[in-house]
Each structure stands twice: as structure tokens, then as C-alpha cells.
Amino acid sequence: MHDGDWDRVWINAHLATMAPGDDGYGVVPDAAIAVKGESIAWIGPAATAARLAARAGVPTHDAKGLWITPGLIDCHTHIVHGGNRVAEFEQRLHGASYEEIARAGGGIQSTVRATRGETDEALRASAGRRIRRLLAEGVTTIEIKSGYGLDEATERRMLGVARGIAREWPVSVRTTYLGLHALPAEYRADRGAYVEAASGAWLERIVASGLADAVDAFCESIAFTPAETARFLGAAQRAGLPIHVHAGQLSDLGAAELAASYGALSADHLEYVGADGVRALAAAGTVAVLLPCAYFTLRQRDPPPVDALRAAGVRIAVATDCNPGTSPCTSILLALAMACTAFGLTPVEALRGATANAARALGVAHDRGTLEVGKRADFALWAIDRPAELCYALGANPCVGVVHRGRPRATGSEP
Ligand code: NIG
Ligand code: FE
Predict the structure, then answer these.
(1) Are 66 and 83 within one domain?
(2) CA Rg, the chain, in Å?
(3) Does 201 lie in the same domain as 58?
(4) Is the pLDDT of residue 415 over 60?
């Protein structure tokens, strides 16, 4: 391929490449970005690109001073689920705690009942309504967890619906089998049997049918112990699946250390993680995925130890945690704003958290998360004056265009 052998090119844009090399946004001002097939073919000065494109007759989009970032990556969601939990939201505002509601059979269990009771079509439709809002904000890759089935058939249905989203919408999906999310009511008398089933035959068959790209477990006082979690993670590791762990959301059970000991791609939440956990994450290269909208919804007081994570060199990602209980949030931009204001990330850290580091958290950094030649042509166009605006405005959506796998999709607000 030679310069100018492109399918399309965007000129007169400012790029925030998020590529390694400096601590900033990787800004390339007055630039152009050209696409061939599904990949980025060329990045360079707009004037050069315009000349080459004109000579070769390449379709050319004049970005007129817009900013272009990598497509945003929401690396932690539970976007496929039945029903909602607005009644619990009201209960919490009357004083009940998340843990109390969970122990009384609500919480995750109530979404399990709703999810089991819905058809695939209904799950697809409600997820689609949420997906549409995320895509409008420049999201091009989304991670989707199961975990509201807690029986083999419904876990598989959830993963199947998640896979189907990538066929129905212009977005790439990574699926995660969240086999240990809560103990389902029918196993209350025999926790061990549930852990064995979820870690054994179900996992084996889910792997065999290619439904999951990774696994996840909720290691917490109201969910699963470190020993139970270790049983599940060990099985996943033997099956060759990458690992995520819900760690330190409500208490410190040593889940971050456990995640790191299994070489997890990510440990998520981390409001309660101690110095040992931070050290372990750093040593293992595990990404810390911060979920400020869950923190906000649960009205938590102590944010994750961002200074310690930063000082230890742990890579930090930011995601919506879109779920009906702790984070009824379909705005990645709101998550970025809250990561800055509530957790103290800088805007560049927050944006890296939904691009380069989110790609790492999903194990897809080889082809996504930065604007670099050879990577996937996934990017978003923004009507902003500087990148920090993506973390600044609350409730605004400056996304005016999205390119997914080299193909422009309709503007951000109408995916
Ligand atoms: O990420 N912590 C566990 N899982 C979800 C909450 C699930 C729910 O409440 O439905 C979370 O916060
Ligand atoms: Fe979650």
C-alpha cells in the first residue's frame, strides 16, 4: 500500500491519539486520518493528506476543526438485563442500604427473577435502548457481562443476546461470563454445589460454544468468598479465559490480591483496596477499572485510592458499570466527568481510562484504544475546543460523528 491508497480520509481535524509517548492526549493538530478497510492507514498533516487524496480521488471529509479521539470503550457493563430496580432506588433513599436489600432477597436477585422471566427478544429490545445512548457518545467497543441468569440456560441466553448486539448495532462487543455474581435462591442450602456447577460444567460448555471472551466474579461479603472465587478463577484460567474481578466494592476481602494472583486483566470498583492490593495490581499489570457512577448511586463516601494506584503505576480505566442496581447509567461521558470530580482523576487520565487503558482492560490493546496506523479505524468526532471538555460538561453530548471499523455511522446523536 502506498500513500494515498485509502478508502476515505478525514482532513482538518485535531487528533487526540492517546498513543503512548507522552503523558498527554497525544495531540496532532491540523491533522488528517485515513482509513483503508477496517484499519487506520495514515496519520499526518492535513495539507499533505488533502493533496494525496485529491490526486488519487479519495473520498474526503472536511472535519472543519473538530477533534477526533479513539472510539470510546466502555469496559464494564451489565447492559443486558431484565426489568429495573427503581423501587429499590426509592427504598435506599428512605434509608435502606444496598446490602440490606440484597440480604432480603432483592438486589441482584430481583434482576435475576426479571431476567429469567424475559424473552430474548425483550432482553434485546431493552439492551438496545441503552446501547443507542452509549453509541451516541462515541462508544465503539463495549464489554457486556452475564450474571443475572445464575442458571446455565439464562446465563447462555444473556451471552447470546450480548453477542447479537454486535450484529444489530455498529459496535464491537466483548462478552464476559459473570458466573459468580450472587448465590441464586435455589442453591441457598448448598453454596458449594452452585460454585461447582458455575465453575465446572456450565463454564466448560460456555467455553465450548464460544459464548464468552472472559469471566468475572463478584468477590464480596454479600456475594462470594475469596476461596469460592479462587475455585472459579482457577477453572477459567485452565480453560484459557481472561479474568475480571469485582473487587473491593463494599469491603476489602483481598479480592484485588486474588485477581492479581490469577493475572487478571482487570480488578474493578476498588473503593476498598489496601496497600497490598495496590502493590499486587501493579506487579501483575492488572488494570484498575473505576466505576464512579456506582459509587455515586450507592452514595459511597470513600473513593478508590487513586493517588496510591497512580504512584504504583497501576493503569486506570473508567467505565459506566451500566446495571439496574448500582449504576443505571448509559453515559460514558458522565462516568468520565465523575471520575474527575469525585475520584480526582485528571481529564487526560479519565479519557485514557475510556480509550487506551479500557482496551488493555479488555485485552484488545493490540488493535484498539489509540489512534495509530495499523489499528482498527474506530474513532469519534467531537465539536469541542479541547479534549478536557469531554470530562467537563455534565449532560452534554458533543459527539457529532463516529467511525466504526472504518465505516462512518450516522452522527452521534442518531446512531
Ligand atoms: O458492578 N457489584 C456487583 N455487580 C454490580 C451490581 C449489580 C446489581 O446491583 O445488580 C456492580 O455494581
Ligand atoms: Fe459491575
Answers:
(1) no
(2) 21
(3) no
(4) no
Query: Could you tell me if the CB of 111 is within 6 A of ligand 1?
Result: yes
Decide: helix, strand or coil at residue 343.
Answer: coil
Q: Which atom of ligand 1 is nearest to the CA of 294?
A: 12
In percent, the amount of the chain with pLDDT more than 70 equals 98
Ligand 1 centroid distance, CA of 232 (Å) = 18
Q: Indicate whether 93 pLDDT > 50.
A: yes
Could you give the CA distance from residue 198 to residue 206 in angstroms, rounded to a whole number?
10
CATH number at residue 48: 2.30.40.10
The residues, any chain, with a CB within 8 Å of residue 370's CB and separated by 6 or more, are 17, 18, 19, 20, 26, 70, 355, 356, 359
Is residue 377 located within the same domain as residue 353?
Answer: no
Any ligand 1 atom below 6 A from CB of 357:
no
**Per-residue model confidence (pLDDT) at position 395:** 94
Q: Are residues 107 and 149 in the same domain?
A: yes
CA of residue 325 to ligand 1 center, whole Å: 6
Tell me the ligand closest to 295's alpha carbon.
Answer: 1
Q: What are 368-387's pLDDT values in tens digits? A: 999 999 999 999 999 999 99
DSSP secondary structure, 2-64, as one string = -TT--SEEEEEEEEE---TTSSS--EEEEEEEEEETTEEEEEEEHHHHHHHHHHHT--EEE-T
Same domain, 65 and 80: no
Counting from 1 in the atom list of ligand 1, the atom nearest the Cα of 220 is 2
| pTM of the complete model beyond 0.90 | yes
- Ion ligand 2 neighbours (CB, 5 A) are 321
Q: How far does the centroid of ligand 2 lie from the alpha carbon of residue 280, in Å?
A: 21
CA of 55 to the centre of ligand 2 (A): 50
Q: Residue 249 is part of which domain span? A: 72-361
- The ligand that comes nearest to the alpha carbon of residue 325 is 1
* 90 and 187, same domain (yes or no): yes
149 lines ligand 1 (CB under 6 A): no
Within-domain flag for 48 = yes
- 135 with 217, same domain: the answer is yes
284 found inside a domain: yes
The DSSP-derived string for 212-235 is -SEEEEEESTTSB-HHHHHHHHHH
